[in-house]
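Running this now, will post back.
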Amino acid sequence: MSEVTKKISPKTLKKSFLTWFFFNGCSQQAESMLGMAFGHAMSPVIDELYDTKEEKAEALQRNITLFNTEAQVGSICNGIVCGLEESKANKQCTSEVIDSVKVALIGPTSAIGDSLWVATIIPILLTICMSISQANQAISWMGAVLYMIVYPIGTFLLSWWLFRLGYRSGLTGMQSMMSSGRLDQLTNAMTILGLIVTGALTASYVSFPLPIQIVKDVFDASTGEILEGVVLFNADDMLNGIFPHLLPLLLTLGVYYLYAKKKWSPLKLMGVILVLALAVTGIGYLFGVYT
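Update: finished.
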């Protein structure tokens, strides 16, 4: 008599996904990164697929090893591993394959997730919500409310769709995408889009005025009157007339260089920005821009 094919129930799949969605960062640490959270999310699947205590212990052990990804897009990894564990329970897959797949998925899912979700979708959503808040003081609260609604719902729907996609397509679908080059194309496209969004946010929300101006009382020969406080020279207007938002761009590039290349800490960078702001403000008072 043939053995009954083991299948993960929809209820268990949902439980596994919800565990990952709500607890993916609860146990992040240096030794296994998200490994413990991954094993926690896989525990309902393991309990359903395997019968003996030894089989469950072995499965749990291989799923708490080193793992790291961007949690939202990375939910596709959970779906794929659920499918592989199902195959393993039916003796159609080996533990080595599952371990190798988990390691192989770390790079592409992290890159796509950071480019698509962290560097593109979240900044765009924040830009829209901040614009709504700044557009009208009477409804400034709408931006925050919109973000609190759209972000968690959007995150949940994206993660759940990717989780089911990973479970349905499995390793074959992921290999097909990687071998066709579509994965690299998607990664490059998301990286470029993320850089464009970052550039737009820099121009829109990073402020670095140059408060240097020359103000004099000027005699108007046509009217015979003395015009008081005429601005003869404004360094900020002149600079923006030649290259709009040049100083915010240079400030952003400088912060990136110090953080990414020189490995400065965020606290040190904030201290430098504070000192720079005090110096520029002092220049503004010296030239009479701020009174």
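The chain has a mean pLDDT of 85. More later if anyone needs it.
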